[in-house]
Amino acid sequence: MSIKNNFINEIIDVVIDEVSKEEIKNKMSTYLIEPSITYIFHRFYPYIVITFVIFILILLMAITIVFLLIRK
To answer: Nearest Cα to 15, choosing from 4, 2, 28, 3?
Structure first.
C-alpha cells in the first residue's frame, strides 16, 4: 500500500506543479474554461429569459391584484 500511495502522491504533486504554471493556466483558461462557460451560457440563455419574463408577469399580476383589492 505504501508504494501505491507514494506513487499517487507523486503524480498529484506533478499535476499540481504543472497546473500552477502561468502558461498552462492561460491555455486552460483560453481553450477550456472560457469556451465551456460561453457554451453553457448560450444553452441556458433562453431559459433565463423565459424565467425573467414569467417573473415580471407574476409581479405585474400581483400588483394588479393588490390594486384591485385596494380599489374595492
So the answer is: 28
Q: Is 21 helix (H, G, I), strand (E, B) or coil?
A: coil
Q: Which domain holds residue 24?
A: 2-71
Identify the CA nearest to 40 among candidates 48, 52, 50, 29.
48
The domain total for the chain is 1
29-41 pLDDT tens trace: 999 999 999 999 9
Cα 72 from Cα 67, distance rounded (Å): 9
- What is the rounded average pLDDT for all residues in the chain? 93
Residue 18, C-beta contacts closer than 8 angstroms, at least 6 positions apart: 24
pTM higher than 0.90 = no
Rounded CA separation 64/11 (Å): 63
Q: From its phi and psi, is residue 21 left (phi > 0), alpha (psi between -120 and 50) or beta?
A: beta
